[in-house]
Amino acid sequence: MKLSRHKYIRRILNYYRTHFNIELPFIILIDGTFAFESLQWKIQIDEQLKGYLENQQIICSTTLCAIKETELLGNYFIIKK
């Protein structure tokens, strides 16, 4: 990743830590469509986010409504080979 992008992300994280008292581990909410697209493109969400967040502790989670949405859109979420 480019150095300027790292600096920008570091600056944003420092802002949120100081102004909103956000501490480690970061809890990141993943919705159904994001999870589907990352699966379709074979992207490891956990590894990519750790790269962006400078190997900070992260916890990926989802909500029950996102799971229900994915179940309702079941035919749409079939991966075509």
Number of helices: 4
Class by SSE composition = mainly alpha
Shape: elongated
Number of strands: 2
Helix content: 40-55%
Largest beta sheet: what is the strand line-up?
Answer: 1-2
Count of the domains: 1
The overall average pLDDT, rounded, is 86
Main beta sheet: strand number and arrangement?
2 strands, parallel
The ordered string of helix (H) and strand (E) elements is HEHHEH
The CA-CA distance between the termini, in Å, is: 30 Å
Strand content: 5-15%
Please compute the radius of gyration using only Cα atoms. Answer: 15 Å
Low-confidence stretches: none
How would you describe what is shown here?
The chain is mainly α and 81 residues long. It has helices at 3-20, 32-40, 45-52, 64-72; strands spanning 26-29, 58-61. The radius of gyration is 15 Å and the shape is elongated. It has a two-stranded parallel ribbon with strand order 1-2. It has one domain (25-81).
In short:
By secondary structure, this protein is mainly alpha-helical. Helices cover 54% and strands 10% of the residues.
What is the secondary structure topology, with strand pairs?
Blueprint: H1 3-20, E1 26-29, H2 32-40, H3 45-52, E2 58-61, H4 64-72
Parallel strand pairs: 1-2
Summary tags:
mainly alpha; two-stranded parallel sheet; 4 helices; elongated
